[in-house]
Amino acid sequence: MDVRRVKFSVIAIILQIIFIILFGVLGEYGDSAKAKSPSPAYDVASMYPYFQDVHVMIFVGFGFLMTFLKRYGFSAVSVNLLLAAFVIQWAYIVRGIIHSVAHGHAKFPVHLGEMLSADFASATVLISFGAVLGKTSPLQLLIMALIEVVLSQINEYIGLDKLGAVDVGESMYIHAFGAYFGLAVARVLRNDQHDEAKSEGSVYHSDVFSMIGTIFLWIFWPSFNGGAASGDEQHRALINTYLSLAACTVITFAFSQLVDNRGKFNMVHIQNATLAGGVALGTSANMPLQPWAAMAIGCLAGIISVIGYQYITPFLDSKLKIHDTCGVNNLHGMPGILAGIVGAAFAAMASSDTWGESVYEIFPLMVPADNSTELMDVMKEYPMITEAGIGRSSTTQGGYQMLALVLTLVVSIVGGALTGLILRLPCFDNVHGNRMFDDREFFIVEGQGFPENEDGGFDDDANHTKVPMLSQNS
Amino acid sequence: MDVRRVKFSVIAIILQIIFIILFGVLGEYGDSAKAKSPSPAYDVASMYPYFQDVHVMIFVGFGFLMTFLKRYGFSAVSVNLLLAAFVIQWAYIVRGIIHSVAHGHAKFPVHLGEMLSADFASATVLISFGAVLGKTSPLQLLIMALIEVVLSQINEYIGLDKLGAVDVGESMYIHAFGAYFGLAVARVLRNDQHDEAKSEGSVYHSDVFSMIGTIFLWIFWPSFNGGAASGDEQHRALINTYLSLAACTVITFAFSQLVDNRGKFNMVHIQNATLAGGVALGTSANMPLQPWAAMAIGCLAGIISVIGYQYITPFLDSKLKIHDTCGVNNLHGMPGILAGIVGAAFAAMASSDTWGESVYEIFPLMVPADNSTELMDVMKEYPMITEAGIGRSSTTQGGYQMLALVLTLVVSIVGGALTGLILRLPCFDNVHGNRMFDDREFFIVEGQGFPENEDGGFDDDANHTKVPMLSQNS
Amino acid sequence: MDVRRVKFSVIAIILQIIFIILFGVLGEYGDSAKAKSPSPAYDVASMYPYFQDVHVMIFVGFGFLMTFLKRYGFSAVSVNLLLAAFVIQWAYIVRGIIHSVAHGHAKFPVHLGEMLSADFASATVLISFGAVLGKTSPLQLLIMALIEVVLSQINEYIGLDKLGAVDVGESMYIHAFGAYFGLAVARVLRNDQHDEAKSEGSVYHSDVFSMIGTIFLWIFWPSFNGGAASGDEQHRALINTYLSLAACTVITFAFSQLVDNRGKFNMVHIQNATLAGGVALGTSANMPLQPWAAMAIGCLAGIISVIGYQYITPFLDSKLKIHDTCGVNNLHGMPGILAGIVGAAFAAMASSDTWGESVYEIFPLMVPADNSTELMDVMKEYPMITEAGIGRSSTTQGGYQMLALVLTLVVSIVGGALTGLILRLPCFDNVHGNRMFDDREFFIVEGQGFPENEDGGFDDDANHTKVPMLSQNS
Description:
Three copies of one chain form a homotrimer.
Chain A: H1 3-26, E1 27-29, H2 42-65, H3 73-99, E2 108-110, H4 112-132, H5 138-162, H6 171-189, H7 204-226, H8 231-258, H9 267-272, H10 276-280, H11 291-319, H12 328-349, H13 352-355, H14 358-362, H15 372-381, H16 394-423, H17 461-464
Parallel strand pairs in A: 1-2
Helix pairs in contact in A: 1-3, 2-3, 2-4, 2-7, 3-4, 3-5, 4-5, 4-6, 5-6, 5-16, 6-12, 6-16, 7-8, 8-11, 11-12, 12-16
């Protein structure tokens, strides 16, 4: 029995028991899930398809997108499942405490709306996972998730409820946060043996597996950006995201060829940069941008992302010692910042002249203070904000949007760096050197077909000898 | 022309023609599908997303979950498609006869609700398929499906309509039935040449293919347990199943490491035991268990399932000569029994004090006999049950739930054993020895990449010589 | 820098910029997506699940179905994404001009309904892509898509709006059109070096990847045929397509064995012919055929498709020099013609005696000219048709259905042949000889696992040397 893994198991079991106890003490069914609920379940019917689309993105999309590594397919799709299942529960509890218990409610509600929020929250951690993929133990990842969920939910709470900075598809609060938190962790965890790793890289069919993730993310991204909205805001979020992704994809192919000196497409770009158009629209998808603007933003995101993969990722690795396994800076980081800036810019230009009443639906804190009915509604929605904070100008709203973006970057980077320091403690089983990017470190790999080559060097003899090459009898 | 396959083709064609005739004689569009239907099609709008989620589970989920075998990927995903397409039609007919024609209606209705039921019914057969995977001919599987659908639908009819034992996610009537029927078939079919089989086992990428099935089953299981419910019952079914699966997943990883002497995760556990939390909730998902209880049940299911794969499956194989290819006992059998027991326990504790009116919605036969309006409704819903059978106590309801579980086990085991005897008839082309677990027995396999090793021995020379190793030119 | 690829990139970027400009000049949000939309967004809630099912078909279904080629997996799934993303935008514009701008509206509406239509339109091009898969450059495909979208949308407009020939699942306007357009292109592009191609064919796991596409297409085909309908028509479309596919699948397996001299199943048949039942119902799915008729049509489609793959495709290749990479003639072409004929036959038999008012809902131009209220509605729906054209007999309607089918075949074949002539221009980088069916022509392929054998011969040395065999160290 390997002591390291007993450690993971014991901690996972203890945390799971704590989760159950916290749900028992603090959780209860939400209104429309209560026995003989008086309220109709219509909200379930209209929300469930969006929830399931997002659910596919979290488990199939993120899981398979990360299977591109030739020797890390088991870990990518399995640990993605583990982390998401873990975070779903923890995010419920953390959100319940922040949004209900901290405000004097004895219980937090458990319902479909929070299932969607819990799935969103797990995306934050899975994005960070992409930055440290292959370089961390499952135990480190559980600890990272524990901390990151708390910090990201507090950051979101401050951004949304205190600053009133909207982010319908959570490009700031999820994508940018997850990316920069993960990159900070990756930087701090980096050690001297990093360059000994020999297993990074893909094989032909692992790049095809990865496309399963890409395509499902691509398809359902409109549901991610629109799932939490309703009415005409939701309809616009679907349209804008769909068009942004389409334009981003065409531009990604074009730039992927342009940056290669043989003029060939690069699967890394196609797997990832095609999706940047979804991230870049995440803050503004519900705004009446007009379709052409959504497309233009998608193009810009694709260009930034391809350039990121081609030039910035190698630079970060060699110069700043930030190794970004999945290139989350290019898919979630920079496009997330772009999303925040775009959102702030449109907020600063928002006006009831052009947007009509929608401006107050999208930015409730811009409701004129002389409209007493709506004012009451807004104050109920934003109990943290005093009457003086309502009636913002569009410039003020734009400023708060930028403030939320900056706050997100600060919290994620500082939080990630501190988390990295904790994860470096020897008790959390950091992975070193040639054991990185290799499923054999944490998974039983006994079958044929494990991509083998001369680097050898993986020193788990008991296991290694059971991994013959695919053509063992040649 | 191989005589064996003409046999399959001829029988398949004849059965398909019979199906068409029976649909022609007995089937007609249901009310909301009739030309110029007077009734609104709202039920279609609300049910269709659930139907499609279940549809994905049946064809993608079950199909890919079984692709883990290195040389049986074609058969797993293709014969899964064949069997499900076959059973969908046959289950329609059998259910139509049991529920409509046997009660004096000239025709049975064809509508979306029955599409969902037909998909559910196919799950029963696909679970049994998992027990005999690699060891049976397509012809045997058709015959097995013919018999199993009749027996399982009669069992469900007795359980639901005569005994009034509820099972919202069909963990008794589908999961436990399918598992023990299949295991009984597998036991009876076992022959002396079983140990000559050399092709069982996975390769690296076949385990990744299998995860496609796992993840889609995991994602859509809430729709499986909640698809046939409505209102607050449906909402609870979604919440409970979601939380049960999340907790089950964390615990599965923990126990997978605990039971391995090197402390490594086992892909077999992750592919299967992570799903046991969905099965274990199948009977009680719509009940107001409270979220923490759903999570605790999920944990218990995960533990049972991992222990089953690690210790019970090898024991059944070596001691009882029951070879369970996919481990359906661990994913569907024992968790299905757990589901039945949990359902009975909650029934026995059900009370209008704590559950309010929901207790009568969930267990209609507990309606007090002095409530004449509801009594009439219940008598219409349960024409098989006399007025004296209504007004059950919670203990009585719990007893009927247990009775339905026991009946299911008896019918499935006896029925499976008898079916196995029929399938042993030489005319049904049993598969022997080294021909087992090998696609070359029933599929054209001419390309590269078929996992080859020294066992050789597959004696279909005409075909075998066309299957070079992946590295044929090395 | 390879000049050929700069050409693709530059043209793709220019076209993308033109698309954005055209959306800017001509596009605007549809009513229920407008800021503070007065109309409720109910249509979004009811249509979105169908849209997402179709979306999965386009990107996952078509994309993975084409990954069966052993050395062309990157191209299949990636260029499918590129083409669909490109066509989505272009089809919006072309449809907007045909349906709105050409009728005097300043702008065309951008909403979910048009997103569904744009996805449908992309299917046309992706079907043609299947006929030329492996034999064309990305640049050729962009040009092909530009032309094909215009021709297919004009053809659909004439068929639907001028001839009044209905086609709920677009089997004529999409499937038959796409197939014969693509085959005509393939015929014209064929050159003397065709027989030098050595890379066609599958490997074991590429055939499993392809089944991902098959299964998702199979599952969601009811949504394709029913997504644009509503009420009882939609309900019937779902039922009929589901049953047709189930029957088609059983018959496909039976015939796949019958036509093989060793009596073995052929993965090519299972990947494709199982879907023919969905195509064959595409024109008549919403009609009250009765379930048995849908099943019988599905069987017929399966038989035609298997025979096509087994006998007709080789004949077309060797005798008519039409090389059909994916066999689109067998999956989309002949079943599409069958669908058109079935639709015409049912139209010719339609009668209000048996179908009630549904006959006028399905074939609005059959509304009796003496019903003034409905007449007005129909004239509004068909502004191209004078009052004298309304009140058709069923025979006349059947004749128009056949006329639309014939027109579709003529436009697609002539249009495809002319497009092929354009694509032969040297500037569009036709792919020759042994460079065909090989990802290395347009993609960076540096990892292990690229299926290699003695044919060698791919003369891109700079790249070729970086593609070692999977077992490089044996």
